[in-house]
Amino acid sequence: MLTSINPTMKAFAVLIPALLLAVTYDPLTPSIYLVFTILVTFLFSKVAFKRWLVIFSPFLLLAVSFAWMTMLHPSEAFSGGDVLFSIWSFQVTSESFWAGISLGLRSLSFAALSLLFILTTDSTKFMLSLMQQCKLPPKLTFGILAGYRFLPTFRYELQVLRQAHRIRGVGRARGMKERLHQFRRYAIPLLANAIRKAERVALAMESKGFTGEPNRTHYHEMTIHKRDWVFVSVFFVMFFVSVFLSYQLGFLNIFGKQF
Hints:
Pfam families: CbiQ. The longest helix is centred in the last third of the chain and has 32 residues, at 176-207. A two-stranded antiparallel ribbon has the order 1-2. A two-stranded antiparallel ribbon has the order 3-4. Helix 1 packs parallel to helix 8 (226-248). The chain contains eight helices and four strands. The protein has helices spanning 7-21, 28-43, 49-72, 94-119, 123-133, 138-167, 176-207, 226-248; strands spanning 83-87, 90-93, 253-254, 257-258. It has 259 residues and is mainly alpha-helical. Helices cover 68% and strands 5% of the residues. It has two domains: 2-125 and 223-258, no CATH class; 138-207, no CATH class. Strand 3 and strand 4 (257-258) form a beta hairpin.
């Protein structure tokens, strides 16, 4: 299962292929990797398809927008080829068309890789893994974790403030001036509560012996197992397999150069 993979190794397995995909300008390489990423997401995790689709849908619109703008406004390297169709004063050539399709598929590949990591990774384990495997300073790690844990509390406090204002007859802001004044009414109490909470957490951590020293024991030990290396290797191998298939079929294009 993807949830059992070390978060740092999973991050490397997602980030580095995404960077490598950025240099490919053909439509076949990102499409193969996109299908591979989606299959891994659903075959080796319990992510609900409906939830994944709801999150992924906005990226579809974004990818279509990227592709369409690239077709209409291509760079000089992708402006050649036969004219496929024209829209007003814009001409879409074969090279600009495939460049736009490639950009859209790369965007979807990045989105699928990001969702694979986000939906199958526990945020606390990820920060602990960064601290233990990547030697991230404990002060920074626990500070980020504390801030992340406060987010639901801030949302609840904001709801309480809004209800309190409504009880006192303060309606919704309509103009820009009223919105700025409303933002100030909400921001000052929330900021004051945040400072008080931060002071309490700092005192609690100091009272329990937290000094921020990197040499410390951990209640949750994050280790790297053989399956983590296998997971990373599969993602790297699959990228080179997709590049090889694109090369064999005559589609491979790296930095605008056809191979």
